[in-house]
Specification:
The protein is of the alpha/beta class. It is 47% helix and 15% strand.
């Protein structure tokens, strides 16, 4: 594998072939001029990326991977750092829901959500941090959730995974700040994507009542915040949870 250092900063975005992750990848490429490796489990979405991406598609590099595969994800991160000679930004975005009330939640639904949403971010962070520490700089961004900050009925597994991401974020920030590696989390509120499209209309109407700005967020709203945290404009921020939720958490 060639190891010429990329002139462009290099980012990895997990779960980046649709929804919030795709907008994050777009923003990092189109606004911050980065080269972005998009990791996703759905092969067809990765294959369609180049066609649907728009300007800057040549700076996208899609890889099919299940982020719960610790060894696989670690190797992928190492390969990216070697291939491009650097790794500047790691966005742990891949996430799923398996909702159900606590009393009826199966072990499998608990464990699957913890593995995809939380364990994967640990694997990604540990792998990326090794390279960032060596190059004395980097930004790790974990996509948490309003549910991780506040808890949410029917989401014991999801809210625990997202609260866990906040603990991971703060610990990573504390351990790596002396090496100029920053780590922050974003807690999106109710964002219009396939994940929320799957909810019943009644649940959506109810959610709107609790959003002070009276609208669902768009994936771009989250991508703008990620681009800020990824950039030097946030050079003095680490260990923070940025709530991008229309004012729900205040
Ligand atoms: P989405 O379902 O549209 O996208 C999630 C992406 O992750 C998909 O492309 C999916 O294929 C990928 N993915 C799932 N499991 C994976 C795995 N094991 N390995 C690799 N990729 C995998 O969801 P979204 O709304 O864009 O959510 C993105 C992130 O934002 C998630 O972590 C989600 O929990 C978080 N979030 C979303 C909302 C919201 O309202 N949409 C709110 C708060 C937080």
């Amino acid at each position: 594998m060639s190891s010429t250092t990329s002139e462009k900063p290099v980012a990895i975005v997990t779960g980046g072939s649709r929804g919030i992750g795709l907008e994050i990848a777009r923003e990092l490429v189109q606004t911050l001029g980065m080269r972005v490796v998009v990791v996703d489990i759905v092969e067809s979405q990765i294959n369609e990326l180049a066609d649907s991406f728009g300007p800057g598609a040549e700076n996208i590099d899609g890889r099919v991977m299940d982020v719960t595969d610790s060894e696989g994800l670690t190797k992928l991160v190492d390969d990216v750092a070697e291939q491009y000679g650097r790794l500047d930004v790691m966005v742990n975005n891949a996430g799923i829901t398996r909702d159900g009330l606590l009393l009826r939640m199966s072990d499998e639904d608990w464990q699957t959500v913890i593995n995809v949403n939380l364990s994967s971010a640990f694997y990604g962070t540990r792998a990326a941090a090794k390279h960032m520490v060596r190059q004395r700089g980097g930004s790790i961004i974990n996509i948490s959730s309003f549910a991780g900050v506040e808890g949410n009925r029917g989401q014991a597994n999801y809210s625990s995974s997202k609260a866990g991401l906040i603990g991971l974020t703060k610990t990573t920030a504390k351990e790596l700040s002396s090496k100029n590696v920053r780590c922050n989390a974003i807690a999106p509120g109710f964002i219009q994507t396939d994940m929320t499209d799957a909810l019943p209309q009644k649940a959506k109407d109810m959610a709107l009542e609790f959003i002070p700005l009276k609208r669902m967020g768009q994936a771009q709203d989250i991508a703008y915040a990620v681009a800020f945290l990824a950039s030097d404009r946030a050079a003095y921020m680490t260990g923070q949870v940025l709530c991008v939720d229309g004012g729900m958490h205040m």
